Amino acid sequence: MDLSEFEADNSVSCRLASAIPDVCKTQDCCLGIDEAGRGPVLGPMVYGICFCPVSKKEDLKNLKLADSKTLTEEQREDLFLKLDEAKSFVGWALQILSPNTISTSMLQRSKYNLNALSHDAAIGLVQFVLDSGVQLKELFVDTVGPAAKYQEKLSQRFPGVEVTVCPKADSLFPIVSAASICAKVRGHTAAKLLSLSSYQFLSVFYLEGYFRDPKTKAWLLKYLDPVFGYPQFVRFSWSTAQTLLDSKAVPVHWDDDEEDGEKAAARQNNTSMLSYFKASAQQSDSRTPHRFFTERRLQSLHTL
Asked: 50: closest CA among 75, 30, 65, 36?
């Protein structure tokens, strides 16, 4: 799978897709949706879809697919290869939501929670295959939030498509199991790529990613920079990360032209955030840049 787009800029969302089988453009098709990596404080979340003709449901079932969470990594890889070998009638697409995309979306001024972000990712993938010519008739979704409301939302968005939203859809419908496997396998690859973006974070790939994991907690404490916070592999909007930032990081006050004299006097012993950048600009370029800048591909500007 070509992850070059995500490798070029892993701070944003990225879409990957297989070729659209010709048969999916001429026959009624079913499509399943599932996600991987919703809960961890580390790494991307991946939304996956898989689709095939309704007439091929039994062929898909014969692949003996199962919910990806019940499978080992090796089993998931083997099943993904089987899906790839069935590319004459099976197609898939993924939306990789980077930790940065997730956190900046959740912390923007207008309310945009994880459920809304997930719904939009799923809807975008369905619209993508429709725009690609897939004759979609049946849609099966593992629920995010109340199933009835989500089903109504999808039914209104895609009239003419029979929508089924229910919990544990990944274990009930083979087409959703296929989507689950695609999301898990490629999400695993994307997480590895993101963790390898800086050599000092190699160990993060082997962490569970949940704060209940002692190794994850230790890693979060170790790589918390008091000024710049976390590397972009961390979902800084998670309460886990926010709590550590509040207790371990340096308080920062951003300069405000509208600030009155009383407030300015109250913080006169504090160092302005802007002073850091002024000092950096005066120092030699021979220094190794902080990862905050290298991860975001930022360079010093000396002249305008």
From this structure: 30
CB 257 within 8 A of CB 281: no
35 annotated as a binding-site residue: yes
What pLDDT shows up at residue 198? 47
Q: Which pLDDT tens digit goes with each residue over 90-129?
A: 999 999 998 889 999 998 888 788 999 999 999 999 999 9
Distance CA 101, CA 18 (A): 23
Q: Which residues of the chain have pLDDT under 50?
A: 198-199, 202
Q: Using CB atoms within 10 A of its CB, is residue 77 exposed (0-12), middle (13-18) or buried (19+)? A: middle
Question: In sequence order, which residues have a C-beta less than 8 Å from that of residue 17 and are 6 or more positions away?
Answer: 91, 92, 93, 94, 128
Q: Which two tokens stand for residue 85?
A: 């070998």
Is 34 annotated in a binding site? The answer is yes
Inter-residue contact 86 to 195 (CB < 8 Å)? no
285 in a labelled binding site = no
Domain boundaries, given as residue ranges, for the chain: 4-195
Q: What token pair was written down for 53?
A: 């003709």
pLDDT in tens, 146-176: 999 999 999 999 999 999 999 999 889 999 9
Which pLDDT score is estimated for 193?
62
* Closest C-alpha to 69, from 193, 183, 231: 183
Superfamily of domain 4-195 in the CATH hierarchy: Ribonuclease H-like superfamily/Ribonuclease H (3.30.420.10)
Classify 140 as helix, strand or coil.
Answer: strand
Burial 234-248 (b: 16+ CB within 10 A, else e): bbbbbebbeebbeee
Instruction: Classify 283 in phi/psi space as left (phi over 0), alpha (psi -120 to 50) or beta.
Output: beta
Contact between 94 and 184 under an 8 Å Cβ cutoff? The reply is no
Residue labelled with tokens 């969302």 = 13
